[in-house]
Amino acid sequence: MPTSDDITVFIHSGWRCSSTYVWHRFRALAGVRAYYEPWHEQLARVTAATIRAETPSNSGLRHPGGDTPYLREFEVVLDPSGGVRGFDPGFALDRFWIEPGASDLEQQVYVAGLVAAARERNEIPVLACCRTLGRAGWLKRRFGGFHIVLIRDPVQQWLSFYSLRRRPRPTYFELCHYVLLSEMAGCEDVSRAILGAGFEGGAPLADRIAAVRARLKRAPASISFEAFLAVWLRSYLKALPHADLIVDVDRLARDQAYAREVEATIEAGCGFRPDFSDCRAPPPHGSHPPVAWRKAVRTVVDLMDLRQAIIGPEAPPILFRKLAPALAALTPGAAGRPAKLREALGGLVGGAWLARAPGRAYAAAAARMDGSRR
Fold first, then answer.
1. How confident is the model at residue 230 (pLDDT cuts 50, 70, 90)?
2. Is 1 within a domain?
């Protein structure tokens, strides 16, 4: 069985994919140093005071963890002049799509520093982040370790972004997907087809986010979903081949036998066992903006020429299983004036305000195809 001398755990996921809950359960284990979002751009400027100030209870993001600071584990690697030692804000999204064989000494030294800080304290390093799906292969080649990939129903994941809107503007999560799509190598035509424009890379992340916000702040919800789905597909196609364990977080919350199986697999791979018995799934988002899910999925899959990657003999089964509810759900009619008005009003008072019949149709399809019932 692995020991803390030879194991590092990486938890890869997208945003709003239960990674905070899974990280929280690892953090509860004795002898573990669980780093939260070690590729987040804010690490370039955090201080001891800001670490103490940011907690799950005051985040507004519906996260577990109470009043314990998210970034407490980083206190031992703070630079006296500010920020986490060795971290560069370009790590956040600039290096998101790095290939396994690429050289990035600066990023490698940074990760090695986090691992060393845990080992010096006789702790097992756990790095959980929403920004590592595209670099899972790179991390595995350089650091070995046990790699867990979390995956969620993509429609529910995107609706979680949308539900956090407090005005008719895209959330931070949506803006990051616009940036990532615009910078996906080999997908320039896909990006232009979905976003309607090209965006220059190379500027600081804050400037790139500002650029997509200015251009797409009033884009229909369908564009946001298609951009998210394109990044979702590319991210998982890159990450899944390097996973030691794939965790279906929708099933984790509903199937106790599956949760025990996941715990046992982690114990066999890492030497310690997190407890997921309190995992609870939020109810499916019943409030849907006017997005034709089936049409959107087919559009993105065809634009990216991914049919064989999803349904071919070498395709990861989990991808089609997660896309199936959207493909089977009833699609709303043409988004005429009433639909567009509902979307605008929903944005004014928060994305969760909308309640439409397609939401019920989608929920029914998702229930029929839920892997926990098979």
1. very high
2. no
**Measured CA angle at 206 (ends 201, 207), to 5 deg:** 50
**Same-domain pairing of 129 and 217:** no
Contacts of 347 (CB under 8 A, 6+ apart): 165, 167, 168, 169
Domain check: are 70 and 147 in the same one? yes
For residue 53, the SS3 value is helix
CB 155 within 8 A of CB 287: no
pLDDT score, position 307: 92
Number of domain units in the chain? 2
From start to end of the chain, where are the E strands?
A: 9-12, 32-36, 124-129, 146-151, 245-248
For residue 82, tell me if it sits in a domain: yes
- CB contact set of 37 (below 8 Å; sequence gap of 6+): 43, 70, 71, 128, 129, 130, 131
Indicate whether 148 and 187 sit together in one domain: no
> Count of residues for the chain?
374
Whether residues 84 and 145 share a domain: the answer is yes
pLDDT digits (tens, 9 = 90+) for 144-199: 999 999 999 999 999 988 888 877 788 999 999 999 999 998 899 999 999 998 88
Residue 350 banded pLDDT, cuts 50, 70, 90:
very low
Strands across the sheet containing 245-248:
32-36, 124-129, 9-12, 146-151, 245-248
Is the same domain home to 54 and 182?
no
Q: Alpha-carbon distance 147 to 150, whole Å?
A: 10
pLDDT in tens, 85-125: 999 999 999 989 999 999 999 999 999 999 999 999 999 99
Domain CATH for 18: 3.40.50
What is the span of the domain harbouring residue 39? Answer: 9-153+240-270
Beta strands 124-129; 245-248: pairing state: unpaired
Pairing between β-strand 124-129 and β-strand 9-12 as defined by DSSP bridges: parallel
Give the C-alpha separation, 351 to 224, whole Å: 13
When mean pLDDT is compared across 8-22, 89-103, 285-299, the lowest value belongs to 285-299
Same domain, 310 and 172: yes
